[in-house]
Every structure is written in C-alpha cells, then in structure tokens.
C-alpha cells in the first residue's frame, strides 16, 4: 500500500492472531500474519506506486515484485471488501471487492467519504458505526445491510491514524438464517395453535417408542390424568395403575393384540383415577408402526377427555328412564279416576233400571254423584298439573296478582277439603290467624294449599292432618303437617324436582309434579318452601310468603 514518505514512524504491535498490521520505518514493512511475522524489505523511495484497485502486471521474475506490489495483489485476491480510511473518513485505499459492493469505480472512491461517493449509505448502520469508530478511535465488529440488500459482517480496526475496514459478504448465510428463523417462527405459531386446539378440545397426543421405552406427550397430556403440571416422566405402568379396575382387562387385551400383531389400530374408552379421587372418562385412538419384520416400533395416538360427554349421556339415559316412569305413572293415575267414573256411571244406570223409584235426591244417588265429583276433581287436578308443567318449561305460567286476604283463601280451601278428609277417614284440623292482607294470585295460592293438603291426606295413612297460618312480622307462614312416614333428610330437596317422588310416594301413587309446581308458584310470589322436622314423625311442609 502506498504511504507518504514523510509519515511518522508507527509502532503498533499486533493485536491478535487475526491482526494485519504493517510498520513502516526506513523502507521496511513488517507484515503480521498469524501465527508469526515475516519481514519484507524494499527500497523506501524507488518503489513504484500501484494504482488502487489495479492488479500489477506479473513480471517475468515474480521474485522481483516489491512488497508493496505483493500487498496489492493480496488485497485484490481477498474475498472480503477492504477500505482504508484516513482520520477524516476519506478513502485512502480500496480493493475491487469493496468498489463492487458500493457500486462505484475504485478511482472515483479515492479521497472521498464512502457515503459521499454513494449517498445511499448515509444514515445506514454502516455509516453510523464507521462515524462512531472515527470519533472514538475504537474498532469493533457488527452486521450491516447495504441499500442493495447485501449483508456484511464488518470488522473495524484502528491502525495508527487510519481506520481499516474489512467486510465479508454474508448475504446468503443471513438469508438462510432468516429463512430458518421464519420457519421456526411458523412452526412455533403452528405448535401454539395446535396446542390451543388440543386444550380447547381437552385433547392430547402421545407417542411411545417401544424400543427405548420413551414416551413423548403433548403439553396437556398429564392434565387429562389429573396432574396440573407435567410430570418428570410418564410410564406405561403409571397409565395402567390409573385405570378403573373394571376397564383394565379390556385395555390390556388390546395391548396384547398389538404385541401379537393382530391389530395396527385401536380405539379404547376407559376411566382414569385422578389424584383428587375423582374418576374421568378418556378415549384413546392409536396407530401402530412396525418395522420390516413386523415388530412394533412406535405406537402413536390421541387422547380425548369425554367426561362431559359421558355425563350428558348418563343424564340423557336418566331422562329417558324418568320419562318412561312418568308415562307409566301418568297412565296409571289418569286411568284410576276414569275407571272410577265409569264404575259410578254404570252403577247409576243399574240403579235407574232396577230401582226407578230412586230419584236424584235420594241418598244412594247423591252418594254416587259425590264420588263422581271427587273423581272429576282429581282428574281435573292431574290434567292441570300436566298443563302447568308444560307452561313452566316454556316460561308461560301466568300470574294475576291482586290485593286480598290470604287467611280467607286458606280457610275456604280447608272447608272444601273437609268432605274429602271425612271420606278418607282422616281428621283435619286448622288454625288460621286473620285477616292477612297481601298481594298474590288467588288461584295459584289455592293450588298451593290444595296440593299440600292432597299430599297430606294421601300419605297421612289415616292419621290426623293439621294446617296453620300465622303471621311473623311482614311474612305469613303456612304449615301443613301429617302423621305419616315422613320425608328422609336425603330426599327433602329432591322431592321438589320434576317427576320426582320419595320412596313412600311411589307406594301411594302420584306423578311427582305437585310439589314441583308448588315450589314454582311459591318462588314466583317471592316466598320459600321447605320440609321441617316433625316431632313424633310425619312430614311438615312450611311455606313462607311476604305480605
């Protein structure tokens, strides 16, 4: 490289194995190339200056080349771009590779700042980092992208008053790394989406390497077995131990069929025991991969939590069973008053044919008519209950609230049930405090009192039934108490559900709708109904209503 003859001597020692430093003094250049320096001497004044970027013509005797010419040849042979900047950032030396990257002939670059010769460089990372190196006199290494979208690995070294720049074109490597990064990001996003889909569906995937015993499993796999966080390892033994004893033989049979080469795929549904003591339903679908000899190498499958599906299935089965029971009860309950009505009609006809002297006012005829009326009321109540249940389900159970005396309503109902109580042989007593003014639907509250009294007379087993209506502050409390077998504690909430009866009720008949309707009406009035303990046995239904 040409240097001015009057330049001061430089005493720069090599900074490392990759340093390329020359010292000039008395016409001697020491070139440090790792690992050891070599010294080349040439005349300090007679050495011809070789234009920058030009290759010297090869003489007949290559040994006659000067050291400066040799360095010029080396510089042009480099695959890296080389720039030598003076203290003001002007280009003193440049090789052909650098000129090609900048897109400016080497002769035009000489003596100019790189960003002046190529304005597109202004403001780039290369510009900023080189300006910083010229200002601080500190080198460094960094990556920079040229406006031509060429990526460079730039190494800056301060040598005396000069700043040397060595840049390697890493565009292909950078693009490959960028493509790898983009591919990894796409796979990461796909993995995240896949995991979200698995978690949303409460699914997991797994793969067992039979040769090594290793089990790969997706993130949510262990959660399907009741573990909130992934375990350190998952083994076949842990899987078998988690199975319900009733499901274990079927699963083991499938595994034996795989080992025996009888199947290459299977679907297995089983219950697994969670650490919290609960049981959950899982279904597993798997395929078997074998080698050329038919030996099992890998078993790969997907796991799905179907607990909610199973619960729905059991609920539907229970609903079907309840429906069938209800239809059986309803047909029986509706047939009973119809049979009685048919019998009373036949008796009246025979009475009219055999004893024409009996008039409608005779005791025999009146008794038959009373029985007919009771059965008609019972039949009407059953049909009303069915209609009310339908209205409740569709949200169309109508209420017509008006001011009235609740005590008068209850007293009237007790009087109506007096004849029925005497007919069934059940003593009925009532204590009604009044008046009790409130706002309510008279017909619906009559339905409440009627259903409660009917139940008490039916299940009282001939024992006394008592009713009371008392005021407690701004509330009215209605209680209906019988002396029957009572309601077990475990059934005291269940009996208010639709189509539900206690064990005693099943022996007495009924469709399991009365108490359900009563609760709906009471709650629509802002009240509450419950079963209280009754000293000495029996059942006490208590209704609290706001006044």
Keywords:
alpha+beta; 547 residues; 20 strands; elongated; single chain; 5-stranded antiparallel sheet
> What fraction of the residues are assigned to beta strands by DSSP?
15-25%
Question: Are there runs of 5+ residues with pLDDT below 50, and where?
Answer: 1-53
Tally of separate helices: 14
Estimate the mean pLDDT confidence. 78
State the oligomer. Answer: single chain
Helix content: 40-55%
| Number of DSSP E strands | 20
Distance between the termini: 111 Å
The global form is elongated
Report on the biggest sheet: 5 strands, antiparallel
Rounded Rg: 51 Å
Strand order of the largest sheet: 5-4-8-7-6
Structural class: alpha+beta
Structural write-up:
The chain is of the alpha+beta class and 547 residues long. It has helices at 67-77, 96-102, 106-109, 114-117, 125-136, 171-200, 236-242, 248-259, 307-354, 363-393, 406-424, 442-459, 503-508, 514-524; strands at 22-25, 28-33, 36-41, 81-85, 91-94, 140-145, 151-159, 162-169, 203-209, 215-217, 265-273, 279-290, 296-305, 402-405, 428-432, 437-440, 465-472, 475-481, 528-532, 540-546. The strands form 5 sheets. A 5-stranded antiparallel sheet has the order 5-4-8-7-6. Strands 10-9-13-12-11 form a 5-stranded antiparallel sheet, with helices on both faces. A 5-stranded mixed sheet has the order 15-17-18-20-19. Residues 1-53 have low confidence and may be disordered.
Short description:
With 547 residues, the protein is of the alpha+beta class.
């Amino acid at each position: 490289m040409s240097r001015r003859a009057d330049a001061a001597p430089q005493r720069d020692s090599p900074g490392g194995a990759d340093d390329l430093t020359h010292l000039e003094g008395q016409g001697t250049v020491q070139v440090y190339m790792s690992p050891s320096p070599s010294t080349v001497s040439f005349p300090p004044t007679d050495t011809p200056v070789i234009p920058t970027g030009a290759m010297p013509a090869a003489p007949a005797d290559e040994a006659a080349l000067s050291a400066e010419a040799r360095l010029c040849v080396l510089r042009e042979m480099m695959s890296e771009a080389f720039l030598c900047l003076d203290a003001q950032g002007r280009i003193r030396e440049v090789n052909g590779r650098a000129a090609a990257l900048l897109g400016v002939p080497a002769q035009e670059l000489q003596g100019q700042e790189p960003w002046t010769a190529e304005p597109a460089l202004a403001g780039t990372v290369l510009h900023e980092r080189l300006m910083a190196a010229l200002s601080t006199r500190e080198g460094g290494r960094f990556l920079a992208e040229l406006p031509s979208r060429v990526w460079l690995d730039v190494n800056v070294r301060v040598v005396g008053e000069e700043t040397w720049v060595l840049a390697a074109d890493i565009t292909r490597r950078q693009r490959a790394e960028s493509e790898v990064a983009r591919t990894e990001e796409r796979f990461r996003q796909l993995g995240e989406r896949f995991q979200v889909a698995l978690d949303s569906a409460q699914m997991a995937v797994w793969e067992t390497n039979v040769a090594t015993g290793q089990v790969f499993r997706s993130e949510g796999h262990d959660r399907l077995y009741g573990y909130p966080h992934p375990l350190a390892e998952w083994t076949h033994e842990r899987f078998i131990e988690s199975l319900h004893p009733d499901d274990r033989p079927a699963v083991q049979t499938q595994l034996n069929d795989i080992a025996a080469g009888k199947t290459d795929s299977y679907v297995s549904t089983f219950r697994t025991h969670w650490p919290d003591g609960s049981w959950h339903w899982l279904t597993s679908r798997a395929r078997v991969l074998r080698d050329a000899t038919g030996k099992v190498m890998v078993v790969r499958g997907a796991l799905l939590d179907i607990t909610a599906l199973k619960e729905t299935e059991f609920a539907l089965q229970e609903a079907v069973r309840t429906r069938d029971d209800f239809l059986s009860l309803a047909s029986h309950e509706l047939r009973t008053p119809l049979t009685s009505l048919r019998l009373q009609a036949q008796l009246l006809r025979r009475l009219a044919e055999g004893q024409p002297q009996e008039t409608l006012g005779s005791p025999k005829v009146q008794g038959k008519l009373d029985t007919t009326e009771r059965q008609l009321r019972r039949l009407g109540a059953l049909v009303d209950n069915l209609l009310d249940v339908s209205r409740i389900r569709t949200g169309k159970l109508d209420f017509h609230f008006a001011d009235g005396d609740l005590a008068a309503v209850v007293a009237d109902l007790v009087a109506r049930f007096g004849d029925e109580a005497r007919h069934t042989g059940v003593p009925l007593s009532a204590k009604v405090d009044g008046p009790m003014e409130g706002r309510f639907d008279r017909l619906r509250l009559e339905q409440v009192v009627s259903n409660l009294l009917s139940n008490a007379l039916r299940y009282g087993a001939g024992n006394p039934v008592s009713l009371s209506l008392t005021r407690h502050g701004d509330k009215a409390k209605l209680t209906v108490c019988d002396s029957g077998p009572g309601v077990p504690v475990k059934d005291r909430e269940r009996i208010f559900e639709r189509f539900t009866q206690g064990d005693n009720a099943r022996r007495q008949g009924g469709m399991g709708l009365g108490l359900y309707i009563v609760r709906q009406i009471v709650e629509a009035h802002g009240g509450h109904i419950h079963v209280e303990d009754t000293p000495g046995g029996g059942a006490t239904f208590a209704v609290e209503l706001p006044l």
